[in-house]
Protein 1
Amino acid sequence: MTKRRNQNDENLKLFDHNPHQEHLKKSRKRALVIITVILFCFVVISWRLVDLMIFDHDKLSRRAAQQYQFKKTLNPERGVIWDRNMKEMATNIDTYSLYAVPKLIKDTRSFSREVSPLVKVSYKDLSRTLLKKRKKKFVWVDRKMEPEAVRKVRKLMDGPGFEALGMMTEAKRFYPKGNTASHILGFTDIDNIGISGLELYYDEFLKGKGINVSVSTDARGNSLSGEIDDNVSGNNLLLTIDEGIQHIVERELANAVEKWKAKAAVAIMMDPSTGEILAMSNRPTYDPNLSVKGPNRRNRAKFEKFWGDRRNRAITDIFEPGSTLKLVLAAAAIEEKVVKLDDMFDVSKGYIVVGGKRINDAHKMGILNFSEVIQRSSNVGSVKIGFRLGEEKYYDYLKRFGFGDKTGIDFPGEASGILRETDEWSGISLAELSIGQEIGATPMQIIRAFAAIANGGLLMKPYVVSDIISPSGAVIKRTTPEVERRVVSRETAETVKNILKMVVEEGGTATKAYIKGNLVAGKTGTAQIFDPKKGRYSRTKYVSSFVGFVPADDPKVALIVVIYEPQKQIYGGVVAAPVFKKIVENTFTYLGVPMERDANKIYLVTRSR
């Protein structure tokens, strides 16, 4: 019995130490642990789902609504505009724009009442737009917002009830120089489409190619899908404008307007040998970074001033050039050999009567030779020269020099000016045209005519853009100097140039334009403004001008200065000539040209690339 019990105990010990049984026990323990972990994870996940579906439902609904997808045409980045030295004149910056999904808005009026104070849209306009487009998936609320407005709107969007709002990043046109060259550059609309200036004229090159994409954005404007390939970005423009010279011209023009309390002013600087525009300025001016809403009852005056200040008078406004037109008269008379330099003209009466109209000189001058008639700007002598030339020949030379036709400058809105056919002339038209009346010209037409004398008799086509450059840096279009025609011989141009030098010397009408060390050739103009309401020339309103080129013997710079309706003084030699002098002196300093120099040394306006 005892022996059997001992045997059983021994068998149990053997059973307890069976390796298979040990492994089975361990497997059961591991399975229990795994099941426990799985059950725990299931409980945690289930609780999270309950939390998301029930407790965080409103919050997640807002996020889902704000992560909205829609189809839209995206505009690529607009091309950069550089001056001739690669300084940025127009570029792009990133801004935020606010949109809404009208179909997700439950209470439009309440929604508009909360949003409108934070954006540039009135409550009335916003609610009307949202109601009108309540079935739409997308509508702009405010475009290209200021940073402070973005901050306030984002704070509003973080709260409940504004799930229908979203933000998107957009490129905004930016002009880093402010109002510098604003009339040249122009500006764009809210969609970065050119509205005026070079922005308009070269819009097809600058704007690139838009594409339709599906865009998803979250509430903070983060793009979730939809991109623009670099190859559709706009092309860049390289200008002939020198930002440094432009600044000088604008500063001196502004000083002149302030000094003479003038209504407006224009200045254009050109390279006479190429037709390149180095600077072009207008006063009043504007900052293209600023905008104004369309006209309404409250802001009509502000709107009209806004657009009036944006008008580029240099190419759009015509005026009677007055005595500056005597350049063409002198050139035509010499070319046609109807006068000699020593021909004498009796202007001692101080007036001449033509067709019952009396034409006066500023004062009596006695007997003058041909050169002195131009130097001292005698109207009586000019009328007598005009009679020698005759209607048909004078008209022909006016057309040759480009009057009555657009110059063809690469700029929108250019005026043709006014030059009537000879069969429309009256009995006094030849006399009037001889002193620069009965004709309408733009400042650009006048400076081009003087540039033709400066370069030896060639009429050049003016231009502002030298190169159009692709986003990759390749030049896809280059403008080269273009001669339209020869207007007079080189010999005639040299003769006229020598006469124009006398205008700035003692006894001439523009001694205030004299520049020590560099000879100036030019001509003054003082023209009455015609009053269409009264049917006669105004006795108080004048346009004062001076046009010239420097150095006279080898001209590199041609410049016109026009001051509209100056007060206290009216004569071009007093009002405009000093402005010419200051602009040229400062420009030569900027370019490193010493005022005292060897007469045979040539200084060039250099281009930096």
Protein 2
Amino acid sequence: MIVDVHKYLIFGAKGEMDRFFALAQRAGFLEFIGLSHKKSLELTDEIKTIMAAIKISKRYPTHPHEAPQDIQDPVSLAAKIVELHSTIEQFREEERILTAEISRIAIFGDFSKKDLHEIERDGKRVLQFFCMKSDLARETTLPPEVIFVGTEYDLDYFVAINKEKTRYPKMIEITIEEPVGVLREKLFNLQEKLAHLETTLRHYANALPALQEGLADYLNDYHLRLVKHDVSCPLGESIFLIEAWVPATRIKALFGLLSGLDVVAERIEIEPTDQIPTCMENKGVGKMGEDLVHIYDTPAPTDKDPSSWVMVFFSVFFAMIVSDAGYGLIYLLIALFLKFKFPKLAGSGKRFIKMFIIVSCCCIAWGILTASFFGISIGPDNPFRKTSFIHALAVNKAEYHMREKDEAYHEWEQEFPAVANAQDGHDFLVKAAKTNEKGEVKYQALDEFYDNILMEFSLLMGVFHLSLGMLRYVRRNWSGLGWIIFMAGGYLAFPFIIHATTMANFLGFISKPVAEAWGMQLVYGGIGLAFVLAFFQKKWGAFHEIMNVIQVFSDVLSYLRLYALALAGMIMANTFNEMGGNMGLFGGVLIIVSGHLTNISLSTMGGVIHSLRLNFLEWYHYCWDGGGKLFNPLRLRRAK
């Protein structure tokens, strides 16, 4: 629910200011508006240090019971963590440089720098180290004083012994400051220090909860000072003054807060330039939906809260896209595991698990209704198949064609002569089948009827979903009534154009001739009504309303993604089952398990993305303003 907010001017004795703001922060329902226009306070160094330490600590597994016992305060702890991390980063850079240097000179072996200098002094010779591209070295005749050492990658390495320093064409001289043995010893010592520092840092990182609590305390103090910083004192040091947004549901609480203070609150007019915050108050399913709503945008204060609607339709659309009871069962087991694994989880984490459970149950329910379980092929006589509503619809459709003896019936009869002797719709579906070379029976009528019904159901869901959005905002956009009629007419008339039979036809709600006649009238009548209502509301802006014909039509068709994604998932599941069945026991299990895991991952991504998309794009288009600023009162922050 989106709650109206009122604007109040709060003023009182300067001596009461600290007490008032402390109580307001504890109450947590006042969003203060700065009047002083002073430069905003920057975050303190303590807060920045603790935030940096928290960021570092989150990289390591946390075990609070192993936290250091000598913690004095969160700032000193954070400073130690930041210092340790900085030292580790510095040592890692040194490690990288040493490793690179060792790799560069390792081919020349280990030697003593002192012995090398003695050889050069006593022999009155100069030793130089070179490298050269291997392909060039093969084409070059080397001088006798140049000794080949070895090859690494595409480089050849050499040692030259001369009376004085010499340069050679196409050769690169290598300077060795320290031999590889010394460098390796340095690297070993450095790695020991690094290991010790890493262990110490991991130990301090266990105090992450203490850091988070400390950050909450410092932020609470910072936000309190920030609000006081925005106070205006028009009469010197005697009176303070500030404005605040107050939810309509908390007006009584405001005056209760002020009852023991020498502070007064007066409601004032909202200026046209004010950005009114959006105050959302939801519980249960609505609060879960609110979490989803904030993924996209914050509602405008003039919007109707879509939280519960988004949660319900997200769950339904996700279930329709996954469309498998087996996958839903896996989701439910994961959700229950998380629930018992993290029993103390609160806030958004707890709501996420509850949402996960709801969505899982929806997947199981829809999978049962559509007789889909891990993509297993279930025969038409299977009891599980007969419990599904989609099978009942397919039987009704078959019986309709049998009664009408229409064109579709004759086509099936011509392809499958046995259907002429069918006793009922179920018998029709069973007899319209073929056996392939592997001996597998393919029930073509059954599969085709299922596909058509699911496709039609997706379009009907689109019409229903969009109609609800238009009805929610019909007072703001009268033409929505016309577009609802237009969509209803399209559903009745469009099947006639493509010679299809709809659920409304074979369930006896409306005959095809009546649907055709009424459908076209509703299509044109809906467009006309939308234009007329838009003209009364928007005057000449109504001419833009006509362009919504394409918009509404394309938005309804967009809901076909529910059918398309579900069909893709079903085909992949069935394909993996068939591939696994053709392999041996070990190979078959491996293919089936890995295939279904892949399919579950893709179905989950598709379900989340497209379920949210249908809400945020198609549906919001007709019942959403958005662009709001979330109500953010002064309150005590708690460590997460």
